[in-house]
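hi! just following up on the protien thing from before. the input was this:
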Amino acid sequence: MNARNEVGDACDLRFGQVGLASVRIRRPDAASLCEELERRVRSSPKLFSRTAVVMDLSELHPIPDDGVVDALLEAVRSAGMLPVALAYGTSETEALAERMGLPVIAKFRAAYEPAATEAPPPPPRRAVEPLPAAPVQAQPPATGGPGAQYHEGAVRSGQQIYARERDLVVTGAIANGAEVIADGHIHIYGSLRGRAMAGAQGQTEARIFISDFRAELVAIAGQYRVFEQIPPELEGKSVQCWLEGEKLLIERL
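and the predicted 3d structure came back as:
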């Protein structure tokens, strides 16, 4: 067997959709960072324990020296999370990442970061009709992109569905450990037991509509709520989720 075939048989390298959380460091205080992240992990271990995170140092000016950054990385690990990369592709960040032995995700944009073109302010809140029993035509995408992406049937545990620059309509159940993500709105005409994240590129006007609410997490434009136990008044009910300022609100339909 020649070398070319040996390499081809040794592995299969492909790119795919990967959900990553971001830790944006506001001040270079490793002890405070570890304490805050430990609190998050304790509150929702299924969601945050050993989760892969991208370290965002963009608010630190100037970027701290290698010793401070190494302490911040160790704080994240000590809290129970796994730093796998640095965000942003400036030459300074790239040099730092190389010294730290980490890659740089140059075009990574966490949901809390607005898109390059600011989205228009959210329209006044209006009464929303209850969800119908069967799928209907989706609302226009919050991003102004093409029509909605449809997913027929269930989303299995470990599976991720991402509607880029459009709304997402799911007609089946979303299992624990599954994720549905959209740059626009999300409409779920089944049970949500996993995670739903709308406005993934920072669109604060995005909403999530769910027929049967049993979620692990819901998020809009980076603002999220985690549920170890669903409030009794919401469990199994049809709900909508939206943002008011930086607060994510959920109410029955």
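Residues 109 and 161 are 18 Å apart (CA to CA).
Helices lie at 3-10, 30-43, 45-48, 66-79, 91-100.
cheers
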